[in-house]
Amino acid sequence: MSIQTLPTTPFTGQRPGTSGLRKKVTVFMQPMYLENFVQSLLDVLNASGADGHGLRGQTLVLGGDGRYHNRVAVQTILKLASASGVQRVLLGRGGILSTPAVSAVIRRRQAFGGIVLSASHNPGGPDGDFGIKYNASNGGPATETLTEAVYARTLTVSQVCASDAPDIAIDTLGVQSVEQMEVEVIDPVADYAAVMRELFDFDLLRGMFARGFSMRVDAMCAVGGPYAKAILEGELGAPAGTVVNAEPLEDFGGLHPDPNPVNAEDLIAHMAQPDAPDFGAAMDGDADRNMVVGRNFVVTPSDSLALMTAHARLVPGYKDGLLGVARSMPTSAAVDRVAKKLGIACFETPTGWKFFGNLLDAGRVTLCGEESYGTGSSHVREKDGLWAILFWMSLQGATGRSVESLVREHWAAYGRNYYTRHDYEGVAVDAANALMAGLRAALPGLPGQQFGARHVTLADDFAYADPVDGSISKAQGIRLIFDDGARVIFRLSGTGTEGATLRLYLERYEANPALQDVPVQQALQDLATLADQVAGIARHTGMDGPSVAT
Ligand code: VG1
Ligand code: CO
What we know:
Helix 11 links the parallel strand 15 (about 325-330) and strand 16. The model has no long low-confidence stretch (mean pLDDT about 95). The longest helix is centred in the first third of the chain and has 16 residues, at about 35-50. The chain has 3 domains: about 5-190, Alpha-D-Glucose-1,6-Bisphosphate, Chain A, domain 3, CATH 3.40.120; about 190-415, Alpha-D-Glucose-1,6-Bisphosphate, subunit A, domain 3 (Alpha-D-Glucose-1,6-Bisphosphate, Chain A, domain 3, 3-Layer(aba) Sandwich); about 415-550, TATA-Binding Protein (2-Layer Sandwich), CATH 3.30.310.50. It has about 550 residues and is an alpha/beta fold. The strands form 6 sheets. It has a 7-stranded mixed sheet with strand order 2-6-5-3-4-9-8, with helices on both faces. The chain has a 7-stranded antiparallel sheet with strand order 20-21-24-25-26-19-27. Strands 11-10-12-13-14 form a 5-stranded mixed sheet, sandwiched between helices. The protein has 18 helices and 27 strands. The site of cobalt (II) ion has 8 residues, from loops. Cobalt (II) ion binds next to loops.
């Protein structure tokens, strides 16, 4: 065994997006593609160590969502890590660790950081996507400063250092080694489950199942399965079969683990049956997203965050109340109303969990959420699918109310924020950029303009000044805000691997309980028309409607 130095040449386009570097599997399988990126990351980490020692003597956490190429990539990364001075790697058995579990392991074991192999909600399999992201010692996604430094390094990297040691046995628990570096293969669930036990009243939840509470969790053949099975069926006594599609498969069994009513149609169909379970939920590829569903009733993620905030004190981990809350800019303002009533701060950040890290670390917020089926709290530094499911189950247990009645009661008390996201997928990159450029150019003329009964009160390109470190993130999405509080937001996805995806977010507030039961798309139809009028969506994309509207 020895360390080999291999010459390499840079690949263009290795700039991480909203959540890490995501590309087609075929791109990642090119010789040296993964190696170049990982070497660049390790070089930057070695240069950045606070004590000047970089990775020397440090522990890294490693695992992924089990998608195609995960097992190969794990072995490659171990060989590079051992050549870069890392002392120890904590590797999830089988190369498996969900995103929130990586965050939990980093924090509980005080690791230097962690590498997550996942393209999250993107499809998997040989023709699907692969991805890699880095989480820092707080357990959260690398900041933009770090990812930009890694990207800069990928443009100049000229050699890769790697051990030529044989592959390790990643399915066997215990300590092995790659050169001087120890690799401890750990149970992927244990640390995460310990965190859940600290937050929730497991006796209450056990009692619910014992009394016949029924639930269907669709893990969509992704990494959430083992966690949900161990905790719900194993520890809490849910009947076997409560968790379906529970085994992580390399191609997610052909499912698209991006939980929304369109992709999780099987769950939605089950929840619409006369004998539907009390509670339904689904998670995404890396188990950081959640969709919660009542009997024939889907909860929008924005409402979910608002309700969790309103009822947080019912959950033991939050019984003392919340320090504050944060939502991404396109997420509906439903939570803002709750925060106002509770008298706590409410922050508005750009899209992507990395923007919540500083607020959580500084003790400014306890709960965070995004419209894209992501909710989380200060227990880790990632959004967390199963945590959200346990939270919603706890709310039902503590109040004795159904999902639907909790949400309806909330609307009656706070009003309803009608909300939808329209995705225009597979748009030509030039066309998408032209649409956004046209919007940016039109911004100065928009305030004051009238559309039907509404006036534009604010039109801007959202910029965020981080209240903790002062860093500024510009061009985070075009916002049109109207005098009645309605909002129309445009941004381009930063997680796709093919063409561009335009995301259009529509929201309006309805205080009148008699008008709170209109079908969502109908309630927001006039805003969709307005959005097309302002941005020329059909003209630029050639599409007469979104490919997905949830
Ligand atoms: C999307 C979502 C965003 C989320 C990100 C990562 O990003 O909109 O809210 O944080 O995915 O989620 P974008 O740039 O495509 O809109 V995950 O679960 O895919 O890591
Ligand atoms: Co995800």
